Amino acid sequence: MFKILIFFYLLKIIAGNPIKDEISTIGVQNASRTDSPWFALIEIKSNGLRCGGSLISDQFVVTAAHCLDSLDSLDSLSLKQGVLIKLGEWKTDIENDCEESNEECESVAEIQPKSVKIHEYYDKSDKSKQNYDVAVIKLAWKPRMSEIIQNIELSTSDSNVKLTNQVLTVTGFGQSTPGRYTNIKKKIQIKIFPDRFCEEKHKGTYSRSRHICGLGYEGVTTCSGDSGSGLFRTVNGKTYLEGITAYGVANCGERDLPSGFMKVATFKEWIKEQIDTLS
Ligand SMILES: *[C@@H]1O[C@H](CO)[C@@H](O)[C@H](O)[C@H]1NC(C)=O
After folding, report:
1. What is the pLDDT of residues 235-274, one digit of tens each?
2. Where is the signal peptide (predicted)?
3. Is 1 inside any structural domain?
4. Nearest-CA residue for atom 3 of ligand 1
5. Which of 80, 109, 174, 201 is deepest in the core (most CB within 10 A)?
6. What is the per-residue pLDDT across 141-169, written as a single tens digit (0 to 9) for each?
């Protein structure tokens, strides 16, 4: 079950790495209630697993295809019974997510999928499936947009974009300790690395054209963020979805292992096509 989780480790073991000092003040933080309002918490009922996703229009969520691997079928009944999507979620252990209990605030939307499109080239039995680990989910209905529910723009970059050395953000409800999910939305800073770093660490899996190589920074054995969660960056006050958390780790506790994010710039035409055609 660890395969769908992404873990981030201390970077300081890379002796003499020039970025070490620069990143020492960033890491994992609690998100605020209104942070990344496009975040979708995806619950798979059959096995209790969580994934993340991003609301990319008024009714569509993009996630990693492998999040849906455990479903026997993608027909509408199986989707309805097996998957629940929560928009606007902040603290999973309390009913009312307001900062103060007497306050009136927007409520979380819990919506089942209406239909799903998994990338045509994704094959869950194939070792290199990470190459097309993308899926689009159409929600059963349109949520009401609010302070805590907003869609995010897809990357406007072309597929050759290199974000190397930039620090992007992922939010998620991944494990904060192995085997235990966090019950508050977390915000994780991810430094983007040169492709060759991931090519070395993920031999035969990493693709320059389809992936972004990133690594988070946090204390020992921190396992943060879920597959499918959006990797985003803000440029001139506007935030864009650049990546989808896809893979990176088999063993929680292994350090210095970067994650592969699906590169949205490469897949955005495919994603838009699904928005136009999924019924
Ligand atoms: C983050 O949130 C959790 C759960 O609400 C809380 O226990 C913890 O103290 C918070 N951490 C910080 C640094 O605020």
Report:
1. 999 999 999 998 764 444 456 778 889 999 999 999 999 9
2. 1-16
3. no
4. 184
5. 174
6. 999 999 999 999 999 999 888 899 999 99
